[in-house]
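Quick one, tokens below. Sequence please?
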């Protein structure tokens, strides 16, 4: 089966959905502000490398038990769905989002936009805690092959805004690689952007 792989944040949409969702929740559920000192402390710990980015990300979403999560996610995408770039519908191949963003946040929008498969960071739906690894870098490839038999899929095109973080999925492209900048696609060959090894 031929598939195309898409990053999500700053690729399909022009923003980081997790960060924007936190802001949305602070605006619509202002009592979440009581969690902000913990987030700020987590940020400082991450900056001095006392905790990892994944641990910081986990702290950021631990406010979830304080809000009506399904209603918040629906309201968030009702507001921002129209910002999705339309070009992703062009290929017609089986489409797979692979993203570091939370599953609870992307499940709704991936269905609305008509993607065939969503692979992203798993979170405990009640506590917001990350389950397993953050779906980033090499973990994206690992998760892809947990969902699909490696011998039964052929990755054709790969789309992402991040050359730095998505080298691993770009390396899978048998067709074209597309670097997304401000919603526009720039085609490139993997070997032209990345050295071997």
């Amino acid at each position: 089966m031929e598939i195309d792989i898409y990053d999500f944040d700053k690729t399909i949409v022009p923003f980081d959905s997790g960060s924007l969702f936190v802001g949305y929740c602070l605006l619509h559920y202002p009592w979440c502000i009581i969690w902000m000192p913990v987030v700020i402390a987590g940020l400082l710990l991450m900056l001095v490398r006392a905790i990892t980015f994944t641990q910081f990300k986990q702290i950021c979403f631990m406010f979830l038990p304080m809000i009506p999560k399904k209603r918040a996610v629906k309201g968030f995408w009702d507001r921002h769905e129209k910002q999705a770039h339309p070009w992703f519908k062009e290929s017609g191949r089986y489409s797979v989002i692979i993203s570091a963003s939370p599953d609870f946040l992307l499940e709704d929008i991936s269905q609305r936009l008509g993607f065939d498969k969503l692979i992203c960071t798993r979170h405990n739906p009640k506590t917001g805690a990350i389950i397993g690894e953050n779906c980033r870098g090499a973990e994206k490839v690992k998760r892809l092959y947990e969902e699909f038999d490696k011998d039964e899929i052929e990755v054709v095109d790969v789309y992402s805004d991040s050359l730095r973080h998505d080298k691993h999925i770009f390396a899978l492209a048998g067709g074209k690689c597309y670097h997304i900048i401000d919603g526009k696609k720039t085609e490139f060959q993997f070997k032209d952007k990345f050295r071997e090894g």
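Residues 106 and 118 are 8 Å apart (CA to CA). The chain has a mean pLDDT of 93.
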